[in-house]
Design a protein that fits this description.
Elements (H helix, E strand, L loop, with lengths): L13 E6 L10 H17 L3 E7 L3 E7 L3 H22 L6 H14 L16 E2 L3 H17 L14 H4 L13
Antiparallel strand pairs: 1-3, 1-4, 2-3
Organism: Pontibacter fetidus
GO biological process, one term: DNA transposition
GO molecular function: sequence-specific DNA binding; transposase activity
Length: 180
């Protein structure tokens, strides 16, 4: 297994990407986004997880974060949110794509090496150590510009599910520790 993308520095600040299986646009409903936010807030409060910046898109999320044993925290986050998002999709009478989404998630589980019942997230979390100010600023800009480049909003701070609001001096959805 490659060591290229592993969180080796226990005190390091990392840029992390967590992607939905097949990059499917699943995270399109407020209920699903709130599951992710509530889980991140729990990790902050209970799991020694520091969040510096974040952005949830329709098929992935980016975090700038730090935590002792980051790999285990991300694993637990993904395991919990996978279960909760699967349940939310299954129980949502308004979900017009329910059959397709459940098929996709179930198929990914069956095809996984562990032959799981379902699989929501792609394997890994692609941690990149941010060890200088230039890298921090570049990743922070990239993360906050994601919804703008996707055409969802004209200004980063207009995207509710992002820390861009905090960095623009507004109250955001989650508490963040400023990097710059």
């Amino acid at each position: 297994m490659s060591n290229k993308f592993k969180a080796k520095e226990p005190d390091g600040v990392y840029f992390v990407t967590i992607s939905v299986i097949q990059w499917a646009d699943v995270l399109t409903r407020r209920e699903y986004l709130e599951i992710i936010c509530d889980s991140l807030a729990y990790c902050q409060k209970e799991k020694q997880f520091t969040l510096y910046a974040w952005c949830i898109m329709t098929n992935h999320l980016h975090l700038i974060c730090s935590s002792p044993s980051l790999a285990y925290k991300i694993r637990d986050f993904k395991k919990y949110t996978s279960k909760e998002l699967y349940r939310a999709i299954r129980n949502n009478p308004q979900e017009s794509r329910k059959s397709w989404l459940l098929w996709l998630i179930n198929s990914a589980g069956e095809l996984s090496s562990k032959h799981e019942e379902y699989k929501f997230w792609q394997p890994g979390y692609h941690p990149i150590l941010l060890d200088n100010n230039q890298m921090i600023e570049q990743k922070l800009e990239y993360l906050h510009q994601n919804p703008v480049k996707a055409g969802f909003v004209e200004e980063p701070e207009h995207w509710y599910y992002s820390s861009a609001r905090d960095y623009a001096g507004q109250k955001g959805r989650l508490e963040v520790v400023w990097l710059v």
